[in-house]
Prior knowledge:
- By secondary structure, this protein is mainly alpha-helical.
- It is built from 14 helices and five strands.
- It has helices at residues 2-6, 12-25, 27-36, 50-58, 85-101, 105-118, 123-135, 139-152, 158-169, 173-186, 191-203, 207-220, 225-237, 241-252, and strands at 40-42, 66-68, 269-275, 278-285, 288-294.
- It has a three-stranded antiparallel beta sheet with strand order 3-4-5, with no helix packed on it. Strands 1-2 form a two-stranded parallel sheet.
- β3 and β4 form a beta hairpin.
- α2 runs parallel beside α4 (50-58), α5 runs antiparallel to α6 (105-118) and α11 (191-203) packs antiparallel against α12 (207-220).
- The longest helix is centred in the first third of the chain and has 17 residues, at 85-101.
- The protein is elongated.
- Residues 258-271 and 275-295 have low confidence and may be disordered.
Amino acid sequence: QARLLESCAVDFDDLLLHVATLLRENPETRSTLDQRYRYILVDEYQDTNLAQYTIVRALSIDAPNLAVTGDPDQSIYKWRGADLKNILEPATVIQGLEYLEQGRHADAEAVFLGLDQRHPGHPLASYLCALVYHLNGRQADAAWLFTRAQHGFPTWALIPYNLGVCLQHMGRYADAEVAYREAIRLNPALLSGQVNLAAVLGAQGRADEAFALHDAILQARPTDPEARYNRGCHLLIRGQWEEGFADYEERYNMPAHAHTHQLPKDRPIWTIEDLTGKRLLVHFEQGLGDTLMAA
């Protein structure tokens, strides 16, 4: 190494190490290169070592369009640091995600916990474990792991969004607000983040802010039935009954809602009655009813 420095030269290992270090310690450079190389394909992936994996991973965070191909039975560079886990672990992740889709949360938890034990502190392992914990109702554990994952994936909007969901379930509405605002900053088009932000604003007694946000969402997405529905809910909470009912009715006329409500009998019937100083709203639809009471 001393002779290399004296000669202003690098060997093959240095070429990898210096680039990996550069990307890790210079976020602006990493982001610039990530945006420049938006699609990355790696061949012979079974022969990548930790430094190569670090480089490829760093260049596929903001634009996560990474495809790899390889055969673990053809790995011949273990002596140079090639790690089969680089190709085998993605299969583990896919298996765990398939378990989640099948509702096999216990099996998914076992897979992701094993991943976290083999790669302690790795942000992807933390995120996946947090996801399972959240689905299993362990919100405090999930929130801690989502926070840890956020340090590794600072530009991934889904992490602060899911963190916000956990905090909202725990009743920590102010903290959830911070998380949702971060998710929206990273992805302004994240509708679920905006809807949930409005919900936690309402839970903090900031009804006017919540309504203004729902109104803005509807103006940006005038044909979205859920945006219409959420605005209608807040209008009813504010006591604006006729306008709230109109939003409910209008969403059933939207093309995006037509596939679920095709027949006239599916349209809701609304009744309002004064009961001891309170108004009772009853929604009857296909034999199913929801009751909302408001002062």
